[in-house]
Amino acid sequence: MRNLAALLSGGLFGIGLTVSGMIDTTKVQGWLDVFGEWDPTLAFVIGGALIPMSIAWRLTNNRKPLAGGEFPPPPAPVIGRNLILGSTLFGMGWGLAGLCPGPAIASLSVGGSGGIVFVAAMAFGMLMAPALKARLDTAVPVAS
Amino acid sequence: MEQDWIWGLVGGVLIGLAGSVYLLVNGRIMGASGIIGGLVDGSGWSTAKERILFIAGLFVAPIFIIPMYREVDTHLTENLWVVVVAGLLVGVGTRFANGCTSGHGVCGISRMSLRGMVATVFYIIAGGVMMIFARHILGII
Fold first, then answer.
1. Cβ atoms within 10 A of the Cβ of B38, count?
2. Count of domains in chain B?
3. Which among A49, A72, A95 has CB closest to B131?
4. Is residue B101 in some structural domain?
5. Surface of A (2-21) touching B: CB under 8 A
6. What pTM does this model have?
């Protein structure tokens, strides 16, 4: 059941990203470009996604996941360096190319080599992140 | 163009349903960077199968609906240096922040998570500043 749900969830995610236009980098960059031809679509996408997701979180109360195990506990409300630094770096890359991890994978289905280069660079960045984090922690020790 | 927001909303609801399935059945947060990153750095190999199937669904499903459109283009920049730098920033950044648009944005905000909200504010502002810098000042995108 876990595997089927994962495949279904990934598929729905991919269709949602395609239907909403989020695999088109001009729509993402259009939302971020407040001094250009501003495109509000992304706000509707996030808003639309929050509706079922908020209901889903409600449904987790006093229940267990259908495939067993436990629901993820709420994260400690710690706003640390890694969260701020990471989100800032991510936002810079997101603006630069107009792709974030989900749409990057979904956009591969359209074809073209640029998307493959992006995903390869992203994967390399993800691979290097733990070592970079460890280095930063030694150089400038703070709570994460 | 005028219908773009409607399709945005429809697509958004589908994305939210995807996150709901992953949460209610598997008990996990649907964060694309976490699902991919756990496979890349080995931290998520114990759940590799469901991660791979999620990514497979994400990649394959659009192929079935793309023929319904007259033309689909990602309009990704042709400047490969920009693509590489952006990819590296997205990869490193999402792993430092432990989430991206889907994990912090969709799943975090809907849970009223302070971390998700703060992350979302920071990546949107950083993206907006990057647009000013790279498009309006440098003119590279």
1. 19
2. 1
3. A95
4. yes
5. 2-3, 5-21
6. 0.96
